[in-house]
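1st attempt posting a full record on here, be nice pls
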Amino acid sequence: MDKKSKNALFLQGIILASAGIVTKIIGFIYRIPMANMLGEQGNGIYSVAFGIYNVALTLSSYSLPLAVSKMISGRLAKNEYQNAYRVYLQALFFAVAAGLVACTALFFGAGYLEELYNCAGLAKPLRVLAPTTFVVALLGVFRGFFQGHGNMVPTALSQIMEQIINAVVSIAATYQFMKAFQSSDSVAAYGAAGGTTGTLAGAIMALVVLAIIFIRQLGEMRKNKQQDETLAESTAHIYKMLLLTILPVILSQTIYQIGYTIDDLLFGSIMVAKGLTDEMASSLRGVFNTQYNQLINLPVAIASAMAASTIPSIVHSYVRNEIKEVHEKIDAVVKFNMVIAIPAAVGLTVLADPIISTLFPRLVTYHVMAVRLLETGSAAVIFYALSTITTAILQGSNYMRLPVIHSGISLLFHIGIVFVLLQFTELGVYGLVIANVVFPIMVSFLNCRALQKRLQYEWKIGRLFIRPVFSAVIMGIVVLGVYQVIFRMTGNIQIGLLTAVIAAVPVYGFLILRTGCFTREELEALPLGRKLLRFLK
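the predicted structure (as tokens):
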């Protein structure tokens, strides 16, 4: 893979990763006041509703960006512009049908799900989220279309616009709903419904943005189609290939998402049977899903973004049987993810207390528990990032069923651990964290072994894992020391945290470069790589 190709791969990955970081930061910013307004019970209802909504999305449309991207990039690699456009059209028809089914099922099944999950008030936010599934289904096709063309800018732009609208509307609607229904026994549920209103508004805005960009590019697409003389694929063949591509992605992603909602289901049923009230169970679920999972998901979003940007590039090389390039791209994206995920996990561990105190100052009832959850389970960041990127690599290399099998095996083990720990121990919510770490470890192990066996890929343990771990551990020691010194001098948690985070960047950056994690060629291929080299010298 030449430097230009490497640079393009990193650039597109960085575009999506940057958008992922921006949207997650916006998400944190708006979730902080919203979480503090909702309280533990409202956060519990909101998080359970979103867990169910994510499963509905996964079944109906979450797989569409990856599947459409894979199919379109494969045809563009052979200059089949007409067939690439036909894939887009048939995927759009599929999205309309799947989105309508998911919307109907979620809206009319909300009452039943409220009883099933032992979560009073759950139906209200679910009914707001129901039409969102339809909008997001259409959104997925547009994003897959642009990503299949190797253009991550429209997806990144739509994600940022979506999150901005989501943030503004969520905060405003949560406040207004809780104010309007403050005398109601269901005020927490109405507040959660207000928060989900922003999700719908944001999705609509993102769809509008992508539709405008798509319309502006119609002229160029018509020109490419006119020059294409390849035989047109039949509609039946496209649907067959679409389903064969979508189903494995749906199954693998469903297994990821269903784990969270099964945790909610088991936790609510078992803990209520042990004597907890519905309100207390909802509050504990709120601590786990809001104060733990939200922080874990921030760095994992970068892996998801890199996975989306990697698939078209790997498909292109795999279709051309350029196995050496496939190996080089695996090196690049895995290393890029580990260099981010590993220090993030270390930072969340050593700074758990000031992070929770700063982000959730009003959620004090379970503060100590939230800190312990983050300290115990932050390692999940590393393995979720690794499992996400290796799943994308396997699917991009036409091993579609392997990640599904690996995730299924891991999920069964995960469910068993959750049940045993909740039913036969007094760990409570800590049992969810333990299982939450074990699941991605198993998926990562199985995926990595498959890459080594199926693609003859040789794992470079030192450069990919050991050097980032060494650098991150040293960084963690320095950062913890900086925080303790500044906190004792000022008595201010926020100043100590900010100073520690600022100190972490140059310390880790210097260590990762000094230990030789990146070769000179890899650094030169990175955007701003030459400047990094000059800085290191």
